[in-house]
Amino acid sequence: MKVLVTGATGFLGGALTRRLHGMGWGVTALGRNSAALDKLEALGIETIQADLKDKEGMINACKDQEIVFHCAALPSPWGKFEKFYQANVIGTRNIIRGCEENKIKRLVHVSTPSIYFDYKSRINVKENDPLPDPISEYAHTKLLAEEELDKAFANGLATIAIRPRALFGPGDSVIFPRLIPRLQTGRLPILGDGENVVDLTYIENVVDALLLCAESPANTLGKKYNISNGEPVKIWRLVERICDALDLPHPKRKISYQTANAAASVLELIYTFIPTYPEPPLTRVSVSMLANNTTLDISAAKNELGYQPKVSIDEGFDLFIKWWKENSSLRGN
Fold it and tell me: Can 271 be counted among the known catalytic residues?
Protein backbone atom coordinates (compact mmCIF):
# COMPACT_ATOMS: atom_id res chain seq x y z
CA MET A 1 0.00 0.00 0.00
CA LYS A 2 1.36 3.42 -0.98
CA VAL A 3 0.35 6.22 1.37
CA LEU A 4 1.12 9.88 1.99
CA VAL A 5 1.18 11.30 5.53
CA THR A 6 0.93 15.09 5.90
CA GLY A 7 2.22 16.61 9.11
CA ALA A 8 4.71 13.75 9.33
CA THR A 9 7.12 15.90 11.33
CA GLY A 10 4.48 16.43 14.03
CA PHE A 11 3.54 14.31 17.03
CA LEU A 12 0.71 12.27 15.49
CA GLY A 13 1.93 12.32 11.89
CA GLY A 14 5.37 11.14 12.98
CA ALA A 15 3.98 8.29 15.07
CA LEU A 16 1.74 7.19 12.19
CA THR A 17 4.59 7.40 9.68
CA ARG A 18 6.88 5.24 11.80
CA ARG A 19 4.12 2.68 12.39
CA LEU A 20 3.27 2.43 8.69
CA HIS A 21 6.94 2.05 7.78
CA GLY A 22 7.30 -0.71 10.36
CA MET A 23 4.30 -2.48 8.81
CA GLY A 24 6.01 -2.47 5.43
CA TRP A 25 3.72 0.08 3.77
CA GLY A 26 5.22 2.39 1.17
CA VAL A 27 4.91 5.62 3.15
CA THR A 28 5.89 9.11 2.03
CA ALA A 29 6.30 11.67 4.81
CA LEU A 30 5.35 15.27 4.06
CA GLY A 31 6.30 18.13 6.37
CA ARG A 32 8.17 21.41 6.74
CA ASN A 33 10.67 20.60 9.50
CA SER A 34 13.85 19.61 7.68
CA ALA A 35 15.57 18.21 10.79
CA ALA A 36 12.60 15.95 11.56
CA LEU A 37 12.42 14.86 7.93
CA ASP A 38 16.11 13.95 8.04
CA LYS A 39 15.41 11.62 10.98
CA LEU A 40 12.65 9.90 9.02
CA GLU A 41 14.92 9.59 5.98
CA ALA A 42 17.50 7.90 8.20
CA LEU A 43 14.89 5.19 8.83
CA GLY A 44 14.54 4.65 5.09
CA ILE A 45 11.34 6.66 4.71
CA GLU A 46 10.75 8.76 1.61
CA THR A 47 10.16 12.43 2.47
CA ILE A 48 8.85 15.60 0.86
CA GLN A 49 9.53 19.04 2.31
CA ALA A 50 6.58 21.20 1.30
CA ASP A 51 4.02 23.70 2.56
CA LEU A 52 0.31 22.86 2.59
CA LYS A 53 -0.44 26.28 1.09
CA ASP A 54 1.33 25.21 -2.13
CA LYS A 55 -1.53 23.77 -4.20
CA GLU A 56 0.64 22.41 -7.01
CA GLY A 57 3.02 20.97 -4.46
CA MET A 58 0.17 19.08 -2.77
CA ILE A 59 -1.14 17.81 -6.11
CA ASN A 60 2.33 16.50 -6.95
CA ALA A 61 2.75 14.96 -3.50
CA CYS A 62 -0.44 12.91 -3.98
CA LYS A 63 0.75 11.38 -7.25
CA ASP A 64 0.95 7.56 -7.25
CA GLN A 65 -0.51 7.34 -3.74
CA GLU A 66 -3.46 5.15 -2.73
CA ILE A 67 -4.36 6.62 0.66
CA VAL A 68 -3.66 10.06 2.11
CA PHE A 69 -3.57 10.62 5.87
CA HIS A 70 -4.03 14.32 6.47
CA CYS A 71 -2.55 14.88 9.96
CA ALA A 72 -1.11 18.36 9.39
CA ALA A 73 -2.68 21.34 11.15
CA LEU A 74 -1.87 24.46 13.11
CA PRO A 75 -3.08 23.66 16.65
CA SER A 76 -2.95 26.42 19.25
CA PRO A 77 -5.33 28.15 21.68
CA TRP A 78 -4.08 31.53 20.44
CA GLY A 79 -3.23 33.24 17.19
CA LYS A 80 -4.58 35.28 14.31
CA PHE A 81 -7.36 33.88 12.15
CA GLU A 82 -5.58 34.19 8.81
CA LYS A 83 -2.65 32.07 9.93
CA PHE A 84 -4.99 29.29 11.06
CA TYR A 85 -7.10 29.67 7.93
CA GLN A 86 -4.15 29.22 5.59
CA ALA A 87 -2.89 26.13 7.42
CA ASN A 88 -6.14 24.40 8.33
CA VAL A 89 -8.58 25.39 5.59
CA ILE A 90 -6.49 26.23 2.52
CA GLY A 91 -4.13 23.38 3.39
CA THR A 92 -7.00 20.91 3.60
CA ARG A 93 -8.51 22.27 0.39
CA ASN A 94 -5.21 21.73 -1.42
CA ILE A 95 -4.87 18.19 -0.12
CA ILE A 96 -8.41 17.45 -1.27
CA ARG A 97 -7.57 18.82 -4.72
CA GLY A 98 -4.50 16.58 -4.81
CA CYS A 99 -6.62 13.57 -3.87
CA GLU A 100 -9.26 14.37 -6.49
CA GLU A 101 -6.83 14.96 -9.35
CA ASN A 102 -4.85 11.82 -8.55
CA LYS A 103 -7.90 9.63 -7.89
CA ILE A 104 -6.82 8.73 -4.37
CA LYS A 105 -8.77 5.76 -3.00
CA ARG A 106 -9.33 7.31 0.43
CA LEU A 107 -8.57 10.48 2.39
CA VAL A 108 -8.28 9.98 6.16
CA HIS A 109 -8.54 13.36 7.86
CA VAL A 110 -7.61 14.33 11.42
CA SER A 111 -10.05 16.86 12.84
CA THR A 112 -10.58 17.90 16.48
CA PRO A 113 -13.18 17.71 19.26
CA SER A 114 -12.29 21.32 20.07
CA ILE A 115 -15.29 22.18 17.88
CA TYR A 116 -17.60 20.73 20.59
CA PHE A 117 -16.57 22.83 23.51
CA ASP A 118 -17.42 26.28 24.78
CA TYR A 119 -16.74 27.80 28.16
CA LYS A 120 -18.68 25.25 30.19
CA SER A 121 -18.60 21.53 30.92
CA ARG A 122 -19.76 19.00 28.36
CA ILE A 123 -19.93 15.27 29.11
CA ASN A 124 -20.12 12.32 26.70
CA VAL A 125 -20.42 14.50 23.62
CA LYS A 126 -21.59 12.62 20.52
CA GLU A 127 -20.49 13.38 16.98
CA ASN A 128 -23.92 14.71 16.00
CA ASP A 129 -24.59 16.81 19.10
CA PRO A 130 -25.29 20.52 18.48
CA LEU A 131 -22.15 22.58 18.03
CA PRO A 132 -21.53 25.84 19.91
CA ASP A 133 -19.85 28.85 18.36
CA PRO A 134 -16.12 28.02 18.08
CA ILE A 135 -14.09 29.22 21.07
CA SER A 136 -10.82 29.64 19.19
CA GLU A 137 -9.52 30.34 15.72
CA TYR A 138 -8.17 26.79 15.71
CA ALA A 139 -11.61 25.29 16.37
CA HIS A 140 -13.21 27.67 13.86
CA THR A 141 -10.84 26.77 11.04
CA LYS A 142 -10.92 23.05 11.78
CA LEU A 143 -14.70 23.21 11.50
CA LEU A 144 -14.32 24.98 8.17
CA ALA A 145 -11.89 22.25 7.12
CA GLU A 146 -14.54 19.64 7.90
CA GLU A 147 -16.92 21.53 5.63
CA GLU A 148 -14.33 21.24 2.85
CA LEU A 149 -14.21 17.51 3.55
CA ASP A 150 -18.01 17.24 3.36
CA LYS A 151 -18.03 18.97 -0.04
CA ALA A 152 -15.35 16.60 -1.32
CA PHE A 153 -17.33 13.56 -0.14
CA ALA A 154 -20.45 14.89 -1.83
CA ASN A 155 -18.39 15.20 -5.02
CA GLY A 156 -17.30 11.57 -4.88
CA LEU A 157 -14.06 11.49 -2.85
CA ALA A 158 -13.94 8.69 -0.25
CA THR A 159 -13.31 10.51 3.03
CA ILE A 160 -13.36 9.65 6.71
CA ALA A 161 -12.29 11.71 9.72
CA ILE A 162 -11.45 11.30 13.38
CA ARG A 163 -11.71 13.80 16.23
CA PRO A 164 -9.08 12.60 18.73
CA ARG A 165 -9.11 14.16 22.19
CA ALA A 166 -5.98 15.45 23.97
CA LEU A 167 -3.15 13.29 22.62
CA PHE A 168 -0.30 12.40 24.95
CA GLY A 169 2.66 10.04 25.13
CA PRO A 170 6.38 9.94 24.31
CA GLY A 171 7.16 12.78 21.90
CA ASP A 172 4.30 14.97 23.16
CA SER A 173 5.10 18.67 22.98
CA VAL A 174 1.70 20.13 23.81
CA ILE A 175 -0.14 18.85 26.89
CA PHE A 176 2.12 17.65 29.71
CA PRO A 177 5.23 19.47 28.40
CA ARG A 178 3.32 22.77 28.71
CA LEU A 179 2.23 21.94 32.25
CA ILE A 180 5.54 20.64 33.60
CA PRO A 181 7.51 23.94 33.36
CA ARG A 182 4.68 25.66 35.25
CA LEU A 183 4.77 22.94 37.89
CA GLN A 184 8.54 23.33 38.17
CA THR A 185 8.08 26.98 39.14
CA GLY A 186 5.65 26.00 41.88
CA ARG A 187 3.30 28.75 40.75
CA LEU A 188 0.61 26.75 38.93
CA PRO A 189 -2.69 27.07 40.80
CA ILE A 190 -5.58 24.63 40.63
CA LEU A 191 -8.16 26.14 38.29
CA GLY A 192 -11.72 25.44 39.40
CA ASP A 193 -12.60 22.95 42.14
CA GLY A 194 -9.96 20.42 41.09
CA GLU A 195 -12.53 17.66 40.59
CA ASN A 196 -13.23 18.03 36.87
CA VAL A 197 -12.84 15.01 34.59
CA VAL A 198 -11.39 15.00 31.08
CA ASP A 199 -10.67 12.55 28.30
CA LEU A 200 -7.13 11.93 27.08
CA THR A 201 -5.89 9.66 24.30
CA TYR A 202 -2.61 7.80 24.18
CA ILE A 203 -0.83 8.48 20.91
CA GLU A 204 -0.59 4.89 19.67
CA ASN A 205 -4.33 4.42 20.22
CA VAL A 206 -4.93 7.30 17.81
CA VAL A 207 -2.60 5.64 15.29
CA ASP A 208 -4.69 2.48 15.67
CA ALA A 209 -7.82 4.51 14.90
CA LEU A 210 -6.25 5.97 11.76
CA LEU A 211 -5.29 2.51 10.51
CA LEU A 212 -8.85 1.32 11.09
CA CYS A 213 -10.10 4.30 9.07
CA ALA A 214 -7.84 3.36 6.17
CA GLU A 215 -9.60 0.06 5.67
CA SER A 216 -13.04 0.62 7.23
CA PRO A 217 -16.25 -0.48 5.45
CA ALA A 218 -18.08 1.73 2.97
CA ASN A 219 -20.79 2.70 5.47
CA THR A 220 -18.18 4.64 7.49
CA LEU A 221 -17.23 6.95 4.63
CA GLY A 222 -18.24 10.58 4.93
CA LYS A 223 -18.39 10.27 8.72
CA LYS A 224 -16.40 11.70 11.64
CA TYR A 225 -15.53 9.65 14.71
CA ASN A 226 -14.70 10.65 18.28
CA ILE A 227 -11.52 9.04 19.56
CA SER A 228 -10.30 8.92 23.16
CA ASN A 229 -9.06 6.38 25.68
CA GLY A 230 -12.63 6.04 26.94
CA GLU A 231 -11.52 6.34 30.57
CA PRO A 232 -12.10 9.89 31.86
CA VAL A 233 -9.66 11.00 34.55
CA LYS A 234 -9.58 13.82 37.06
CA ILE A 235 -7.02 16.06 35.44
CA TRP A 236 -5.72 17.51 38.70
CA ARG A 237 -5.12 14.02 40.12
CA LEU A 238 -3.05 13.33 37.03
CA VAL A 239 -1.15 16.57 37.62
CA GLU A 240 -0.37 15.33 41.13
CA ARG A 241 0.93 12.07 39.65
CA ILE A 242 3.24 14.09 37.40
CA CYS A 243 4.50 15.96 40.44
CA ASP A 244 5.13 12.73 42.34
CA ALA A 245 6.95 11.16 39.38
CA LEU A 246 9.19 14.21 38.92
CA ASP A 247 9.63 15.14 42.58
CA LEU A 248 7.73 18.41 42.23
CA PRO A 249 5.43 20.05 44.78
CA HIS A 250 1.69 19.59 44.34
CA PRO A 251 -0.34 22.66 43.37
CA LYS A 252 -2.20 23.85 46.48
CA ARG A 253 -3.69 27.24 45.76
CA LYS A 254 -7.11 27.24 44.13
CA ILE A 255 -8.55 29.86 41.81
CA SER A 256 -12.22 29.72 40.90
CA TYR A 257 -13.13 29.23 37.26
CA GLN A 258 -14.81 32.64 37.18
CA THR A 259 -11.72 34.41 38.52
CA ALA A 260 -9.32 32.54 36.22
CA ASN A 261 -11.53 33.18 33.20
CA ALA A 262 -11.74 36.89 33.99
CA ALA A 263 -7.95 37.09 34.37
CA ALA A 264 -7.47 35.27 31.05
CA SER A 265 -9.88 37.68 29.35
CA VAL A 266 -7.84 40.66 30.55
CA LEU A 267 -4.57 39.06 29.47
CA GLU A 268 -5.95 38.27 26.04
CA LEU A 269 -7.06 41.86 25.61
CA ILE A 270 -3.64 43.18 26.61
CA TYR A 271 -1.75 40.74 24.37
CA THR A 272 -3.78 41.67 21.29
CA PHE A 273 -2.05 45.06 21.39
CA ILE A 274 1.46 43.56 21.28
CA PRO A 275 2.68 43.70 17.65
CA THR A 276 4.14 40.19 17.67
CA TYR A 277 0.84 38.81 19.03
CA PRO A 278 2.45 36.35 21.50
CA GLU A 279 0.33 33.81 23.34
CA PRO A 280 -0.74 35.06 26.79
CA PRO A 281 0.38 33.03 29.82
CA LEU A 282 -3.30 32.23 30.39
CA THR A 283 -6.07 32.00 27.79
CA ARG A 284 -9.80 31.41 28.18
CA VAL A 285 -9.46 28.21 26.19
CA SER A 286 -6.75 26.80 28.47
CA VAL A 287 -8.72 27.83 31.56
CA SER A 288 -11.81 26.07 30.25
CA MET A 289 -9.91 22.91 29.42
CA LEU A 290 -8.25 22.77 32.86
CA ALA A 291 -11.33 23.67 34.92
CA ASN A 292 -14.30 22.11 33.12
CA ASN A 293 -15.46 18.56 32.42
CA THR A 294 -14.75 17.57 28.81
CA THR A 295 -15.46 14.00 27.70
CA LEU A 296 -16.52 12.24 24.50
CA ASP A 297 -18.81 9.38 23.59
CA ILE A 298 -16.69 6.95 21.52
CA SER A 299 -19.35 4.27 20.99
CA ALA A 300 -19.59 4.99 17.24
CA ALA A 301 -15.87 4.37 16.74
CA LYS A 302 -16.09 1.16 18.73
CA ASN A 303 -19.18 -0.14 16.96
CA GLU A 304 -18.46 0.97 13.39
CA LEU A 305 -14.64 1.02 13.17
CA GLY A 306 -13.88 -1.70 15.69
CA TYR A 307 -11.80 0.79 17.69
CA GLN A 308 -10.60 -0.42 21.08
CA PRO A 309 -7.97 1.50 23.08
CA LYS A 310 -5.10 -0.90 23.70
CA VAL A 311 -2.89 1.28 25.91
CA SER A 312 -4.51 2.51 29.13
CA ILE A 313 -4.07 5.96 30.64
CA ASP A 314 -1.92 4.46 33.41
CA GLU A 315 0.32 2.61 30.95
CA GLY A 316 0.55 5.65 28.70
CA PHE A 317 1.37 7.90 31.63
CA ASP A 318 4.25 5.63 32.72
CA LEU A 319 5.59 5.53 29.16
CA PHE A 320 5.46 9.32 28.91
CA ILE A 321 7.24 9.83 32.24
CA LYS A 322 9.95 7.33 31.26
CA TRP A 323 10.48 9.18 27.96
CA TRP A 324 10.46 12.58 29.68
CA LYS A 325 13.14 11.55 32.17
CA GLU A 326 15.29 9.94 29.50
CA ASN A 327 15.17 13.09 27.37
CA SER A 328 15.36 15.72 30.11
CA SER A 329 19.00 16.50 29.30
CA LEU A 330 17.99 17.51 25.77
CA ARG A 331 15.67 20.11 27.23
CA GLY A 332 18.22 21.44 29.68
CA ASN A 333 16.22 20.22 32.69
Answer: no
